[in-house]
Amino acid sequence: MSALLPLKSETGVLFEEQERENLLQQFLEKNGLEEEELLPLPGDASKRRYFWLSHTLIMDAAPPHEDTKAFESITNLSQEAGLTVPKIYAADHKNGFILLEDFGDLTYRKALEGGHGELLIYKEAINALAHLHKEIKKNKTKLPPYDLDLFLDRVSLFTQWSDLPLSQGAKEDFIGLWTEAFQNQPAVPQRLMLRDVMVDNLFWLPKKEGYKRCGFIDYQDARWGPVTYDLVSLLEDARRDVVPALAQSMLKVYFSHFPRLSRKDFMASYCLWGAQRSTRILGVFSRLAKRDGKPKYLEHVPRVWAYLERDLQHPFLAGLKDWFEKVQI
After folding, report:
1. Which CATH architecture has domain 136-201+220-327?
2. Cα dist. 176→152, 155, 181, 200, 241 in Å?
3. Domain ranges within the chain, ordered by starting residue
4. Would you put residue 104 in left (φ > 0), alpha (ψ -120 to 50) or beta?
5. Residues 54, 52: Cα–Cα separation, whole Å
6. What is the full DSSP assignment across 158-216?
7. 231 Cβ contact partners less than 8 Å away, ≥ 6 residues apart
8. At 192, phi and psi to the nearest 5?
9. Distance between CA atoms of residues 41 and 48, nearest Å
């Protein structure tokens, strides 16, 4: 039998968690791994769990909260485009388990802390995204778009969980301003959005070459949307300071791949999606602290506010800038 650390749970959910362990054991047995010892990896903000065994990983993504089919679909699509994503060795989509390639432990964060060149590894991440945007130009797999409903749903987490004393009128103005911004956003190319590109979801793989040295994970929530989203996700990382000079340098790298791209439209879109993302994250971090008992995420709040304030300086977001200034008085 595989050695699993016992799960701690409140009364009332222990039975469900035991059932989950039984399903995991069945997945291991089906793939001839029942004698392997599993090492639980540290958790994060999501409901997914990961276990390490014999140079592979098991993703435990229980439905209906998670969708392993989506993960496999985006993996296949990204591999065909030449992106470095983990190979999938086995999957049980009904119960939410995937056996996948282990990239090791050299995340971008650890690489940066270990002295690997910041400019180099960020540049290869940008080159990888540019390559993805060149290779996949049509939404052939019918990925759902990042539409207005999702846009407003995500950004509304801010008003739902913020400590600011918001009147009903202020909340209605908030929705109205974001709706107007979305509907009037400048036209930029629409591509595959991986949606959570940041230093903890990227791996530095020095044995590979060029942009393939950047390995991507955690893209199961991918959508179809503006090319600016993943760039701002990386360059306005909620969990790591990215100085404006580095961000500008990396945007120049991206523009070098697309010399005909309108810089004016791109930057308006970049600031819009950066502001939307930061506003959403402020709501998410507040919810994690209040509802889920995870206050550690609050340490990132000042950084996210700084990103938001920077993006709100763009003239396209003048109305939202005024709204935030009013409610914080």
Report:
1. Alpha-Beta Complex (3.90)
2. 10, 12, 9, 34, 31
3. 14-101, 136-201+220-327
4. left
5. 7
6. HHHH-SS---HHHHHHHHHHHHHHHHTPPP--EEEE----SGGGEEE-TTS-GGGGEEE
7. 126, 129, 250, 251, 254, 270
8. -65, 125
9. 11
- Tens-digit pLDDT profile for the chain (329 aa)? 333 433 444 444 455 778 888 999 999 999 998 888 889 887 665 678 899 987 899 999 988 888 899 999 999 999 999 999 999 999 999 999 999 999 999 999 999 999 999 999 999 999 999 999 999 999 988 999 999 999 999 999 999 999 899 999 999 999 999 999 999 999 999 999 999 999 999 999 999 999 999 999 999 899 999 999 999 999 999 999 999 999 999 999 999 999 999 999 999 999 999 999 999 999 999 999 999 999 999 999 999 999 999 999 999 999 999 999 999 85
Beginning with the edge strand found earlier in the chain, give each strand of the sheet holding 39-40 in spatial order. Answer: 39-40, 49-53, 56-60, 97-101, 88-92
Question: Judging by beta carbons within 10 Å of its beta carbon (0-12, 13-18, 19+), is residue 64 exposed, middle or buried?
Answer: exposed
State residue 186 phi and psi, 5-degree precision: -65, 155
Residues 277, 317: contact at Cβ < 8 Å? no
**DSSP letter (8 states) at residue 296:** G
Instruction: Identify the three-state secondary structure at position 283.
Output: helix
Are 226 and 267 spatial neighbours (Cβ–Cβ below 8 Å)?
no
Structure tokens, 167: 């009147």
pTM reported for the whole predicted model:
0.91
DSSP three-state, residue 53: strand
How many CB atoms sit inside 10 A of residue 13's CB? Answer: 11
Question: Residue 103, CB half-sphere, CA atoms under 13 Å: how many?
Answer: 24
CATH code for residues 14-101:
3.30.200.20
Q: Which amino acid is at 52?
A: W
Cis peptide before 64 (omega within 30 of 0): yes
What the block records as the tokens of 125 is 């991440």
